[in-house]
Specification:
This protein is mainly alpha-helical. It is elongated and about 45 Å long.
């Protein structure tokens, strides 16, 4: 479990770095912003390697509930952005 937990923390650190860049960076191009958003999405997908392990998720919930909540919130944020971009692309049709 500890190895999986360390992996979760490592992925979370990378996701946090990308979130901070997306939120606070002064982008001069939509392409660069989109590229960083794509990297965040790919990074977030790494969590899926262990999210199907319910025993591990219960273990993390007990050991570090804040970590698990932050990961879930990031996932919700990405779903919100994905939905926004989908709707924005429909408005151009």
């Amino acid at each position: 479990m500890d190895e999986k937990y360390e992996f979760f923390k490592e992925v979370k650190e990378r996701a946090d770095f990308l979130l901070e860049q997306l939120a606070e960076g002064e982008y001069k191009s939509l392409d660069i912003y989109s590229n960083n958003l794509m990297h965040l999405t790919k990074t977030f997908r790494e969590f899926a390697l262990y999210t199907s392990d319910s025993e591990f998720l219960v273990w993390v919930q007990i050991r570090d509930p804040a970590l698990l909540k932050e990961i879930l919130m990031t996932g919700k944020l990405l779903l919100i952005l994905d939905n926004f971009f989908r709707l924005a692309s429909l408005s151009g049709e």
